[in-house]
């Protein structure tokens, strides 16, 4: 159907051109017929010639129109709305400027410049409306909140209750692949709406399609975690379809989104954690949570462990607790493969994890 419409448009265009200009061409060539015959013949020839000349172009035009249609259908409503508003504003500004430009008595200026200004300002208006939509939405939200502050006492109480609603939790790629976020949500320790940005989904899909086997498995695990969050767990999961095209890095987009939504970034990425803190964006680090719920170990306590490998330093052995905490055993190299009692000497706590230093109990007794 679309192809027929394009072909009809080409035929009408060719017929119009032939009707307007071919009679003069016939006269110039010395062909004299009645005016109506020249007009009809010109329209028929113009339609036929343009149709034949552009017949091979029709498929490309149809494919382009369908591509534009698909892009518009997939685009978020907010993108289309603010892009259209920006385009309209740009065209209005161009029209107002062109009113004065057309008064200039220079043919090149009053004919070419208006076309250039209309295209340029229309494009700039669309880009500003499209790329700054999140700021406009945030501004409208702030105005609405300011208006709510002037309501009655009963409405003020309702507003206070609304402020108690937990903020949106924005997940980054690393915390989705990690998988522990699903267990945390299942235990109801994480409240509020879980937001999955579209650009995080795209990065996750890119990892899942990687030629590297390890990356591919990590990406697929992340997609499985998302399906579990959305289908099996009692949490509200929303997809944020917007994007910040002027920002390239996914981490920077997450920080920007958290500022716009006044949300909280959930991650286990140490560097993203520091960036959020530097830019005054709230952040929840899964590793910090995991460290916080680990059993407290104090110097002087005794525990039974199995030394499994060498340490980095001379004569050290390494063991692990059930929760993955590393225990560095001084003078423990000789006990590799054995289960021994050790005495804790010190504990090192960082955002990357907890490390315990200990000595074999037998050596303590010898001393």
How would you sum up this structure, described in words?
The chain has 367 residues and is an alpha/beta fold. It is built from 15 helices and 11 strands. A 6-stranded mixed beta sheet has the order 6-10-11-9-8-7. The N and C termini lie far apart (93 Å). 22% of the residues are buried. Residues 157-162 have low confidence and may be disordered.
Provide keyphrases for this structure.
five-stranded parallel beta sheet; six-stranded mixed beta sheet; single chain; 367 residues
Structural class: alpha/beta
State the end-to-end CA separation: 93 Å
Physical arrangement of strands within the biggest beta sheet = 6-10-11-9-8-7
Number of helices: 15
Task: Name the average pLDDT.
Answer: 79
Q: How much is the radius of gyration in Å?
A: 35 Å
Low-confidence stretches: 157-162
Q: Strand portion, in percent?
A: 5-15%
- As a percent range, the share of helical residues equals 55-70%
Question: What is the overall shape?
Answer: elongated
Q: Mind sketching the topology for me?
A:
Layout: H1 2-28, H2 35-53, H3 58-74, H4 77-101, H5 107-131, H6 133-148, H7 153-163, E1 169-171, H8 173-178, H9 180-186, E2 194-197, H10 198-208, H11 213-231, E3 237-240, H12 250-261, E4 264-267, H13 270-278, E5 283-285, H14 286-292, E6 302-306, E7 309-310, E8 317-320, E9 326-329, E10 339-350, E11 353-360, H15 361-366
Parallel strand pairs: 1-2, 1-4, 2-3, 4-5, 9-11
Antiparallel strand pairs: 6-10, 7-8, 8-9, 10-11
């Amino acid at each position: 159907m679309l192809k027929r419409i394009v072909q009809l448009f080409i035929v009408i265009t060719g017929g119009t051109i032939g009707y307007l200009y071919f009679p003069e061409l016939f006269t110039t060539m010395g062909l004299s017929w009645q005016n109506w015959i020249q007009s009809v013949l010109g329209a028929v020839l113009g339609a036929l010639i343009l149709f034949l000349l552009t017949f091979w172009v029709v498929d490309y035009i149809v494919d382009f129109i369908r591509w534009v249609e698909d892009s518009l259908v997939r685009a978020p409503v907010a993108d289309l709305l603010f892009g259209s508003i920006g385009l309209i504003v740009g065209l209005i500004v161009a029209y107002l400027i062109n009113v004065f430009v057309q008064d200039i008595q220079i043919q090149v200026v009053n004919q070419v410049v208006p076309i250039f200004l209309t295209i340029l300002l229309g494009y700039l208006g669309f880009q500003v409306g499209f790329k700054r939509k999140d700021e406009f939405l945030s501004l409208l939200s702030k105005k609405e909140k300011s208006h709510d502050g002037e309501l009655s006492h009963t409405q003020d109480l309702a507003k206070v209750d609304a402020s108690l609603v937990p903020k949106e939790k924005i997940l980054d790629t690393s915390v989705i692949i990690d998988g522990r976020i699903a267990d945390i949500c299942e235990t109801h320790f994480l409240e509020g709406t879980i937001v999955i940005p579209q650009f995080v989904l795209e990065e996750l899909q890119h990892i899942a399609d990687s030629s590297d086997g390890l990356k591919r498995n990590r990406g697929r695990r992340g997609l499985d975690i998302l399906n579990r969050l959305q289908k099996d767990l009692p949490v509200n999961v929303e997809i944020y379809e917007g994007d910040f095209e002027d920002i390239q890095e996914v981490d920077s987009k997450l920080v920007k989104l958290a500022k716009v939504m006044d949300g909280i970034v959930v991650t286990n990425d140490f560097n993203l954690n520091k960036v959020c803190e530097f830019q005054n964006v709230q952040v929840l680090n899964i590793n910090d949570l995991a460290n916080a719920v680990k059993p407290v170990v104090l110097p002087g306590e005794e525990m039974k462990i199995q030394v499994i490998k060498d340490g980095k330093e001379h004569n050290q052995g390494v063991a692990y607790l059930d929760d993955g905490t590393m225990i560095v055993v001084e003078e423990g190299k000789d006990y590799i493969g054995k289960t021994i009692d050790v005495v804790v000497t010190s504990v090192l706590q960082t955002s990357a994890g907890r490390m315990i230093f200990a000595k074999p109990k037998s050596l303590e007794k010898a001393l």
